[in-house]
């Protein structure tokens, strides 16, 4: 019988890559509980990702990567998160950033080529650090307090970034900073030196193994050539679908755990497993409705972004809706899975307990629910209308 998770595989190449992601996910699942308990960064998972060629999936083919589509990125990230949500979310930022850089065409070509070749050759990873304690989420538009002071041949950067996912393993990253003499905000490629400090602050309810510590810049020098100031192509933010893909994968894992439990658990007052109970079947049906609705919307949004390149800027409401729907449905799916399993789902030895904590992190990843709702409202209000007032 065909597995539901395979429903959106379209061809043999996607099937091969999906199998690779599932093999990695199975390996990561065995380590996930330990890293969650310790709050430790899973360096061995990233060594496996590098060896499998996973880190170069979104590098354009011209630079030696696989150049996968957004649809494929969603397909693979969902499977990786099935095994370990924290690892999937962390590597998703790297894959998504490289994907975005290649489409937005903002980087100087030579600098982007150097990054891509390093990813392919050395397994280098990248992320953008924009969040700060005083400004909150960068998606809200706050001006960074990190400052880039112009100097001969470059800039001195000073400031502190929060939510710096992948920080324990990166040797370079992008930083947003305010440039006082220009009264402007810009991005800089920072390479790790003695002026870059990692402060291990990440101790959270969920997604405990993403390594999202604080990064402190103490006069880190960035040469003029590493400033990223090209005009950015508006891609609608399609790359951010790596985020809901992660939470969909966690929800799928919770759903499958609950289904297996319902098929096999038979208390001594029943002559059949609890899957035979109408109340349990009702909850399973509700769980399926949530899951299939969200998943269909997610893949439809990714496919449309791939196919309609010229329309990408106008797809922002649809892409935001996919994230909003998937994240909130995923939370409810995990909740229903726990209701099926009962009190045993609260035990640290049960993966549902970790899924419950991890899946809630999606509410705090961009775009936030309130921003999505506002974007949808604005899109509706901006629609031109040729209708005349109706008289009755």
TrEMBL record:
Q: Which domain of life is it from?
A: Bacteria
Q: Which cofactor does it need?
A: FAD
Q: Does the keyword Oxidoreductase belong to this entry?
A: yes
Concerning Gene3D superfamilies, the annotation shows: Acyl-CoA dehydrogenase/oxidase, N-terminal domain, Butyryl-CoA Dehydrogenase, subunit A, domain 2, Butyryl-CoA Dehydrogenase, subunit A, domain 3
Alphabetized, the UniProt keywords read: FAD, Flavoprotein, Oxidoreductase
Annotated Acyl-CoA dehydrogenase/oxidase N-terminal domain residues: 13-98
Q: Which InterPro entries match?
A: Acyl-CoA_Oxase/DH_mid-dom (IPR006091), Acyl-CoA_Oxase/DH_mid-dom_sf (IPR046373), AcylCo_DH-like_C (IPR036250), AcylCo_DH/oxidase_C (IPR009075), AcylCoA_DH/ox_N (IPR013786), AcylCoA_DH/ox_N_sf (IPR037069), AcylCoA_DH/oxidase_NM_dom_sf (IPR009100)
CDD domains for this protein: ACAD
Q: Which GO terms describe its molecular function?
A: acyl-CoA dehydrogenase activity; flavin adenine dinucleotide binding
Looking at the record, the residues that make up the Acyl-CoA dehydrogenase/oxidase C-terminal domain are 244-361
Task: Please state every residue range assigned to the domain named Acyl-CoA oxidase/dehydrogenase middle.
Answer: 130-218
Which residues, if any, are the signal sequence? none
The UniProt family comment states: Belongs to the acyl-CoA dehydrogenase family.
Protein name as it appears in the record:
Acyl-CoA dehydrogenase
Q: Which organism is it from?
A: Paenibacillus nanensis
